[in-house]
Design brief:
The chain has six helices and nine strands. The chain is of the alpha/beta class and about 180 residues long. α4 links the parallel β3 and β4 (about 80-85). Keywords: Cytoplasm, Glycosyltransferase, Purine salvage, Transferase.
């Protein structure tokens, strides 16, 4: 990815200071999603490394991972798997607790969302501490997925999420980095 592509994507992301609490800068991709050219560029760049690899499924984390993951799945002719908050899926599920900044939460996936050995890419808008993404990787592996990679539009490298995923042996790809929180 070229420096100009990174600049275009970073510029399309709105930064909101002191949200959701003082000292946090919220990186809002809704501006990127609303800009047709930037959205197309982001999806094209997310997909590019995986073309021709025979990826079976894209797993998207609620909620912005659904938007990006659905677009990726379409372009890669792959299926899409939603990873949802507990209690939101209608069929039998497998769940996994994961760490939040203050406490824990649970995510779920349908028991039959992935066949054993299927190649899956995890997708979301942002990787920060990695708690949600690590939980999602463990959940996917629990039902037999081969997690090929995880991709995100934004990396907040100071928070260590990329390193947490890499410690699990998961390749991580991102499009833009922002320092701080």
């Amino acid at each position: 990815m070229t420096a100009s592509t990174k600049d275009i994507l970073a510029t399309a992301i709105r930064s909101i200071p002191d949200y959701p609490k003082p000292g946090i800068i919220f990186r809002d991709i809704t501006t990127l999603l609303g800009d047709a050219a930037a959205f197309r560029l982001a999806v094209d760049e997310l997909v590019k490394p995986y073309e021709g690899l025979g990826v079976d499924k894209i797993a998207g984390m609620e909620a912005r991972g659904f938007i990006l993951g659905g677009a990726m799945a379409h372009q890669l002719s792959a299926g899409f798997v939603p990873i949802r908050k507990k209690g939101k899926l209608p069929y039998r599920t497998v769940s996994m607790a994961y760490a939040l900044e203050y406490g824990t939460d649970e995510m779920e996936i349908h028991v039959d969302a992935v066949k054993p050995g299927e190649k899956v890419i995890l997708c979301d808008d942002l990787i920060a501490t990695g708690g949600t993404a690590v939980g999602a990787v463990k959940l996917l592996r629990q039902i037999g997925a081969e997690v090929v990679s995880a991709c995100f539009v934004i990396d907040l490298p100071d928070l260590g999420g990329r390193k947490a995923l890499e410690a699990l042996g998961v390749e991580v790809r991102t499009l833009a980095e922002f320092s701080g929180h």
